[in-house]
Design a protein that fits this description.
Elements: E1 2-4, H1 10-18, E2 22-24, H2 25-28, E3 35-37, E4 40-46, H3 54-62, E5 64-66, E6 69-76, H4 83-93, E7 100-105, H5 116-119, H6 126-138, E8 143-144, H7 149-162, E9 174-176, H8 185-189, E10 195-198, E11 201-204, H9 214-218, E12 224-226, H10 244-251
Parallel strand pairs: 1-2, 1-4, 3-5, 4-6, 6-7, 7-8
Antiparallel strand pairs: 9-12, 10-11
The structure holds flavin mononucleotide (FMN).
Residues 6-11, 46-50, 75-81, 106-110, 211-213, 239 line the site of flavin mononucleotide (FMN).
Length: 257
């Protein structure tokens, strides 16, 4: 059994490699009973600011897992900043004892930092990394990915920079520009129901935004951008092995849309 959270498909792609019983966290978290029993239980999600997305944190805090082997795979694009160690601390604070936490280097979908057209051309040897992770999991390897003092310093620096921003700065990251045709795709790919259509136009409501950027990356008109400068406003990304329909299925909150 593997739980996943995804904005642009990297983590879903990884999850599909590792297990056949896939459960989307944005769907699971709506259930009343969050109690799971399986021989192995995995979590696959992106790294946001070196940590797991808020919804994944909330899920780990609420859920009960009965398993002999609990593992996490954290997809990241450029700098993991000790994500494995931070995830281990989170697990322990939730009463979970992880057997295995690894990181997986993939396309970085963070639009302020990276040009998606460039990212696509970098060979990050994803298949090789995934094959090694799969072997580890099949053999029930115990391991937490190595974290160096340099990684810890990077995270400290990040936290220090974040502390200078207003607490809700991330909630105002998404900007819906002119030219929305009201197709509603952004609403369907949003895992936190933070976008809806009003008078035929998309509206972003801050509060519970996960900043996964699914809305921006999947907008066919490219009218969803950010309130901070982007590397390339015309370049958008979705994992090449994952369809738009799969992202919708994973994240859709409002079934009537
Ligand atoms: C809000 C946000 C924060 C991110 N922070 C980091 C980070 O700290 N380090 C990193 O290497 N990548 C970071 N990334 C890149 C993603 O972790 C990476 O592209 C991931 O594989 C995306 O997974 P997904 O396609 O399943 O959404 C960030 C992306 C977003 C949207």
């Amino acid at each position: 059994m593997i739980f996943y959270f995804t904005g642009t498909g990297n983590s879903l792609y990884a999850a599909k490699h590792l297990d056949t019983e896939l459960v989307s966290i944005p769907q699971a978290i709506k259930e009343k009973e969050l109690s799971y029993t399986a021989e192995t239980i995995g979590i696959v999600c992106p790294v946001y600011g070196h940590e797991v997305p808020l919804m994944v944190k909330e899920f780990l805090q609420k859920a009960q897992f009965q398993t002999e082997y609990f593992y996490m795979v954290l997809t990241y694009g450029n700098r993991h900043g000790g994500a494995a160690e931070l995830a281990e601390e989170l697990c322990r604070s939730c009463g979970i004892r992880p057997s295995y936490i690894n990181i997986l280097w993939m396309v970085d979908n963070w639009l302020p930092g990276f040009d998606m057209d460039e990212q696509r051309t970098i060979d990050k040897k994803v298949e090789e990394q995934l094959a090694a992770i799969k072997d580890d999991i099949v053999s029930r390897r115990g391991m937490i990915a190595e974290v160096t003092d340099k990684d810890r310093a990077a995270h400290e620096e990040f936290l220090n920079n974040m502390s200078k921003l207003p607490e809700d700065a991330w909630q105002h990251l998404i900007r819906i520009g002119e030219g929305c045709i009201g197709c509603g795709i952004c609403e369907k790919v949003c895992p936190s129901a933070s976008i809806h259509l009003q008078d035929g136009k998309a509206v972003h409501v801050p509060g519970n935004c996960q900043t996964c950027l699914a809305c921006a990356h999947n907008c066919p008109q490219k009218v969803i951008g950010l309130n901070v400068p982007e590397k390339n406003k015309d370049a958008r990304y979705r994992n090449e092995h994952i369809t738009l329909q799969e992202i919708i299925q994973a994240n859709i909150q409002n079934e009537v849309c």
